[in-house]
Design goal:
The protein has about 550 residues and is of the alpha+beta class. The protein has seven helices and 29 strands. The strands form four sheets. A six-stranded mixed beta barrel has the order 2-3-8-4-7-6. A six-stranded mixed sheet has the order 12-15-25-16-24-18. A hairpin with a 5-residue loop joins strand 2 and strand 3. The longest helix is centred in the last third of the chain and has 33 residues.
């Protein structure tokens, strides 16, 4: 009977803590704290659909005028905080509807004119105030009245043409805006006017999630090109625990920018990134210096200083300079083999966002391919321009506070309803293991009890007596000395950054190796167990390098394949 009682107590003693541990391990992961997006209290997400424009860009429907709204398709750009509309006198604005200022009773002319410089083009026009609205997913228009608008009467390229009638400006008008108009500032932006109308709001925040451009041809005009989560990012579309925020760089002058980086005027959302990495076959290249990058979906590709673009493409067998350019001659493209194997990524904080060959190799339709990485032809331009091919692989969070500098958040994407719940996985695994152990203990107890019933009363009584070999006396010297278990050293865990929950790059080099190092405890003396194998690890330091060649990595730094 003592045996049965002991078995029952042992089973219950082990089962209860296992069940408690399973729930205890599951709940903290399920309720893991995440980084909240900096949205004002009371803000709600207003989905604003984005469509492809049929020529390699994006567009949103916009209405102008209060009395008889005029509806147009505007491309989107972070380069300026003004709204641009092709006017009736714009001869270069062909094959697109034009804004009729004379038909609007809400338009108010302002003194002066504006000339804005973009990458590869300029626009000129008069300034007015106008009431505008942007189409939301529910079919209504989000109104933004009293908007400062440039009525474009001339341009140096076909920026406003072929179905695109204007620019939905998402800039802040901070620093050097590229606009020649005097007095243009934050109050002329969508954000400034919104905060003026809503004095209780501390900031204006929105999320951008673009769909990727096709690698061959162009998407049909009007097809799904992504979404703006207006006035509040939708955290079901991005990993809130892995958002890296970057403060906007001062674009008023090149002073203070690393490496003497020059900033082209007309670009508001300019941030410092933490370098780049590229892999071509077995060759690994990296730039471990901070790079100043303009982030703007108006431009399709990724644009690097000329020498760095050349370095990457010189490593690709069969690459050659091409005469094509997506920036009206400010950049140059490279033709590459259509089966080339290479990747490229930017480092943002402790994360590396990598583009694969399917996103970097662009089919030309005649059996030839070009690279999505272009190089600036002007050697004095040492900045970077991050266009939609990179933006469409991540989730961007734009935060414009009432006071203080704006910030830009970079995050991996997730799919609503398909995101991986680490807590549920861990909790379920632990619970499953505990359940199997419990079943094993119950089966053991049942079989033991069944065996005990089959034993006779004398056998049960004798079973509690020590078994002795015939003619051999047990060796007893005083009280037995209990075994002293040794304490196994614990493995130090790497410090986790609070914001990202990822391994930190430190001062960059993206290719790094890191493993924990530990050893198991020694066996207990009283009952020899099979010796435990030591858990060994080595940390192989990788020296910081600037645009250099590295051996092939076997355990790369954590990256996000995009």
């Amino acid at each position: 009977m003592a045996r049965k009682s002991l078995s029952t107590i042992l089973s219950l003693t082990i089962m209860v803590p296992l069940i408690e541990d399973a729930f205890a391990l599951h709940l903290p992961f399920a309720k893991r704290a995440t980084n909240s997006t900096p949205a004002s209290p009371g803000a709600t997400t207003l989905p604003m659909p984005i469509h492809f424009d049929g020529r390699g860009g994006y567009q949103v429907p916009v209405q102008m005028a209060s009395n008889s709204p005029q509806t147009f398709n505007f491309t989107i750009s972070t380069g300026s905080g003004l709204t641009f509309a092709a006017g009736q006198s714009c001869a270069e604005c062909s094959n697109t509807p034009l804004y009729n200022q004379g038909a609007s009773t809400s338009a108010v002319s302002l003194s002066g004119s504006d000339n804005t410089t973009w990458f590869g083009t300029t626009t000129s026009g008069n300034l007015i105030k106008e009431n505008c609205g942007a189409l939301l997913q529910n079919g209504s228009f989000w109104q933004y009245p009293n908007q400062t608008v440039v009525v474009v009467n001339s341009q140096s390229s076909s920026l406003l043409a072929n179905g695109i009638s204007g620019i939905f400006g998402l800039g802040t008008n901070g620093g050097s805006t590229g606009s020649s108009a005097s007095g243009v500032g934050f109050n002329d932006t969508i954000y400034g006017q919104f905060l003026n109308r809503n004095p209780s709001r501390a900031n204006f925040t929105f999320g951008m999630m673009l769909n990727s451009l096709p690698a061959s041809g162009s998407a049909s005009a009007g097809t799904d090109g992504g979404i703006l989560h207006w006035t509040k990012p939708d955290d079901s579309f991005f990993d809130t625990s892995k958002v890296t925020y970057k403060t906007l760089a001062d674009t008023s002058s090149s002073a203070g920018n690393t490496n003497g980086t020059t900033i082209n005027t007309g670009q508001d959302w300019t941030v410092g990134l933490d370098g780049w990495v590229a892999t071509v076959g077995n060759t690994h290249l990296s730039n471990t210096d901070t790079v100043v990058a303009v982030v703007d979906p108006l431009y399709p590709n990724i644009y690097l200083p000329g020498d760095q673009a050349k370095l990457i493409h010189d490593t690709i067998n069969g690459s050659a300079l091409s005469g094509a350019s997506t920036l009206s001659g400010l950049s140059q493209t490279y033709s590459i083999p259509c089966d080339a194997q290479f990747s490229f990524g930017f480092l943002v904080g402790s994360q590396t966002f990598v583009l694969n060959p399917e996103q970097l190799i662009l089919q030309q339709g005649n059996g030839t391919c070009v690279s999505a990485i272009e190089g600036f032809t002007d050697s004095s331009l040492t900045q970077y321009l991050v266009g939609s091919r990179f933006i469409s692989t991540i989730y961007l969070i734009f935060n414009i506070p009432r006071d203080g500098p704006p910030t830009l958040g970079f995050s991996p994407r997730t799919s609503p309803g398909k995101s991986t719940n680490v807590g549920a996985i861990v909790g379920g695994t632990v619970g499953g293991v505990a359940f199997v152990i419990i079943l094993g203990l119950v089966a053991f107890w049942y079989l033991r009890r069944r065996a005990d019933r089959r034993m006779g009363p004398f056998e049960i009584e004798d079973a509690d007596k020590p078994v002795q070999q015939a003619g051999v006396e047990p060796y007893m010297v005083g009280a037995p000395t209990p075994a002293q278990p040794s304490i196994a050293p614990t493995t130090p865990l790497p410090t986790q950054p609070l914001l990202l929950g990822e391994e930190s790059h430190g001062p960059l080099p993206p290719p790094s190796y890191e493993e924990a190092s530990s050893s198991a405890g020694s066996p207990v003396a009283s009952r020899p167990n099979p010796p435990r194998g030591d858990v060994k690890g080595r940390r192989v330091p990788v020296p910081s390098m600037s645009i250099s060649e590295m051996p092939e990595m076997t355990s790369p730094t954590e990256t996000h394949a995009l």
